Amino acid sequence: MYRTNPTQSKRTPQHPSTSTTRTVGRGSRAEGQPDNPRAACRRRGPAGVVSDRRMPAGKRLGLLRLGLLLVSALAASGASGVSAVGAVLHVDALAAGSNDGSSWADAFTDLQTALATSISGDEIWVASGTYAPAGPDGDRAATFQLVSGVGVYGGFSGTEAVRDRRNPAAYVTVLSGDLNANDHAVSTAADLANELTRSDNSFHVTTGTGADETAVLDGFVITAGHANGPGAADGGGMLNAGVVSTVAHPTVINCMFEWNFAWRNGGGLYNRWGDLTLSNCTFRHNHANAGGGPSFELGGGGMSNVNANPVMSDCTFSLNTTASNGAGLHNLSGSPTIIHCRFDENKTADVSAPLGGGGMFTRAEGSPVLMNCTFTGNFAIWGGGLRITRDSAPIIINCAFSGNVGVQSSAGISLNNGGTATIINCTVSGNSTAGGGIGAGIEVGGESNLILKNCVLWGNTSGGISDRRAQITHGLQSAQVPDISHSCVQGGWDEGIGNIDLDPLFRDADGPDNIIGTADDDLRLTGFSPCIDTGDNVSLPADSADLDGDGDTAEAIPIDLKGNQRVRGSWIDMGAYEYELAVTAGGPSPIDRADDISRDVVLAWQPGVSAQTHNVYLGTSWDDVDAATPDTIAAVGLSQETHSLDVGRLAFDQTYYWRVDEVNGAPDYTEFKGATWSFTTEPFAYPITAIAVSASSTSGPDTGPEKTIDGSGLVDDLHGIHASDMWVSGGLPATIEYTFDRAYKLHQLWVWNSNQLIEAFVGFGAKDVVIEHSLNGIDWVALEGFAQLAQAPGVAGYALNNVIDLEGVMASAVRITINSVHGFAPQTGLSEVQFFHVPVLARQPQPAVGTTLDSLDTVLSWRPGREADLHEVLFSENRDAVEDGSALIATTTVAWLDLSDLNLQYGTTYYWKVNEVNALENPPVHEGDVWSFTTPEFGSIDGVE
To answer: Left (φ > 0), alpha (ψ -120 to 50) or beta: where does 801 sit?
Structure first.
């Protein structure tokens, strides 16, 4: 069978001009240089990666006005030159001095020792590395217990004298529950429930119970907690459970909770009767199993909050799962304040059970406040984005719900069973339900109440239909007809006042990638939107949180979801965003932080409203581009009509930063500095993931050849020592053969040799080998110039030490014959094998495969193969004609083709492919895959279907 190796997706093969040497571990540390493999991975990771970004002072002041004591958080904000009131205790796992914590040279090697030694007023500084609450085979109940008055800070290189010099993004500091360092990687968070290698992990990696708001945890990755014990089934990453006589109010800043598990509640964090403060934290890939079955009382893959009123700001909940409710956040009888938070791609179990709230679930008495939050791409049976039930009464302001999915109904927001929701200035768009589901935008039922003011509900689809019932549905049992006013509702809403049924004219509802519910979607209003100045100012509540930091909490909320002025004219706009006259460039293409971008990219942007000329800066240093140093100047004085720039061929696998400054015309010639964006270019080669494998022999059912391609035992490119994670042959010579799903132009082969614990003594590792490749699986050619594989060390954390150049041969299969080993063993084996190829086929077709078009007007486009200088386009409604090559319609030098002259027919499926041609290469033609799209069933004439 073909297997997809999840560990390969982010691998970067080495370019022929780069060294194949790899450095593992910290070794000697240079200031500013990442010191472990995880650090290198995180430097350009996605949004939510641990960073040193701080909460604005105004927002902190606002949270104080909400009644929270953030004195400690303010002291911990990392201002330049900040020093501890008491002692600074240093922790570094590699310190070799006296280990008394007095300096980096004499640092404690164990965080537990520092915590046990600390007293109120101390700070603990922790160098990058991984720290566990106990040693191998240690007590699973051991945990990093926070201490009132003590700040614990990660992200140090191990040389800093001032806390502000640390960098948690570069010097990743991990608190791990993997006591025995034997965890296998899993593909999804839900897989954590059945992963046996985690059964010896800590129940709770960290604990805040008993600590007040002066206990600070700042700058850590918290991972591998496994709360599955008797009385310890909640809060795998962190347990924060107070009682009437015990506080549980710690301050947690700049932390990431990932790959944690709880049998009941709160895979990442369980908060009960604890009014903790969370700022700039990320919860991703966590899972709550809900005791093995769905229950309204259980859930919270990312976090579960029970009978508590925490404040969460600038936090992200993404890719969390649960077998019950609230995959991102589960709230029961609590009134959390949630400001500037993101809920992305969280998912409840895909089963026929009353599961709801992919992004967030809130139940029972309590009034959560959500301000300036986004819910994007979440999934649930009911309430893909948010589910509200059982007397919960949230207030939701300046929020956007997009691309969420509900299986039964209510993809955006589900409100039922007595819940009451007040929703003001929110945008609900592009959410969808499957089959006959209703209320894709908002569903109201079960004696519930809805108050909706100044909102936009547009483009939500139920069963593929975008009518009024798809935008909002209320059942016969709802307490009353929803109170909707001054809102834009597709299909109309006549029961309220000031409502309209007009296209809101979003800037780009599905973004440059043409996919609704992704990070590049732009639901801001264009200048012609009917939603501008049509809201009701009286509906806007007071700024009790002082979002703009001006000290005025009596004023109406002054900012929108993007942080811009909330009311620009006489009247407020509908939706989460106020229309803005953009004086700076926007709409970057590539989108900000995009990766796998062609080296031949053309930069493009949307100009500011008053720009006469554009200055463009491009470089590989954010600081240099931000400062506009001379070497980053790409163009100066581009004309007003020019909104793009060809910057020439860029380097492989390089992160570039760029910005566009807009310059006004006469008389002022004001220059508006643009935002600095980034993108990363394509790697030289890509991993092959669809591979079938067989071997001449195997020693047992748990050591078959598939172990070399399934990623088992491999974490962050480092392999473990367990034979069950490797192929072990039955004798010598031994052959292992890899067959791909098609022919590829092969670049490199990576081999981790056999790495059992006894390798140094017995020598199972392959030594003398013959590597052969085949284009048809019948005729084989031996690779010249390679004869031996390097031996593995036989210790955990084995880094790649065999990189084999495959010289660009075209092959559909590779086999390795092992003739001898590094020791005296009569058998051999391999730990992991990965292949990389140079992309020579056309790919990424537009329209995407299987798309149904909105009209007959279309342009074919594709990403060209690496070596192509001509493109043969074959197109027909007859698939056979495309496959056999008889449907050639054009040969072009550009990677697009306008079909406007072909007289396409309605309701027809068309097939097409692109053959890449270069007469100087061998072979000269690379035949592409067959793609398809379907034209619409009908069109419209003068607006009538």
So the answer is: alpha
